[in-house]
Design brief:
single chain; Tetracycline Repressor, domain 2
């Protein structure tokens, strides 16, 4: 889950200046994100998005064919940002160490720092929203979220497999279970952070997991 602004530990991407149309589209997607997280996609109306963006309905339909197209583009944007977030962070960690275990531990430190910011910047978890409000989203849009979660799992399982080759595991947990733990404390941690008003929840869970990984491959 990428924070709205990149922390210092994550490289920033230089991009060309955006056109007015691109800024309007991004504004509509941001408004949709906020509304969907807080009250659901079914309760989010085109009228409120148009009013919030300060445009006409025809302006909305210039960017999106209909509400289903809005949903698809919202999830594509959300998953795309998260993919860039993970790719850049993992690349940064691997630049700092050629050792797969050490680079993964560095990655988890970066991740903990970023997630503390994300818990403040994000009003909720889009993955959980789509998953539990499945009747509000079409099948293709739901599949985008499933693919996104599976891509996360694949990334982490692959990295953990590299580690296991260099450091035969001391623990009994499977690599898939270790990979899924990252997803579990990320998505579940958003709930804890909101319920307890504790922005450090995911960060603390990440650091606990980091120690678990260290012990799993190096022992006590």
């Amino acid at each position: 889950m990428a924070p709205r602004s990149s922390p210092e530990t994550v490289p920033t991407v230089q991009s060309e200046p955006r056109s007015k149309g691109e800024r309007t589209r991004e504004r509509l997607l941001d408004l949709t994100y906020e509304s969907v997280i807080r009250k659901g996609f079914a309760s989010t109306s085109i009228e409120e998005l148009v009013e919030g963006a300060g445009i006409t309905k025809s302006g909305f339909f210039y960017h999106f064919k209909d509400k289903s197209d809005l949903a698809r583009q919202l999830i594509e944007t959300y998953t795309g940002r998260n993919a860039v977030f993970l790719d850049e962070m993992s690349a940064r960690a691997r630049e700092l160490s050629d050792d797969p275990l050490h680079s993964f531990l560095i990655f988890l430190k970066f991740y903990a720092e970023a997630m503390e910011e994300a818990a403040v910047a994000h009003p909720g978890c889009m993955v959980a929203t789509v998953t539990f409000q499945d009747q509000s989203w079409d099948r293709a849009t739901r599949q985008l979220v499933i693919d996104h979660v599976m891509n996360w799992r694949t990334l982490f399982v692959s990295w953990l497999s590299e580690i296991a080759e260099a450091y035969p595991p001391k623990g009994k947990a499977s690599l898939e279970d270790l990979a899924d733990a990252i997803l579990a404390f990320t998505y579940g941690g958003m709930t804890i952070a909101r319920a307890l008003n504790d922005s450090s929840a995911i960060s603390r869970q990440t650091m606990m997991f980091r120690e678990t990984v260290r012990l799993h491959f190096l022992g006590a």
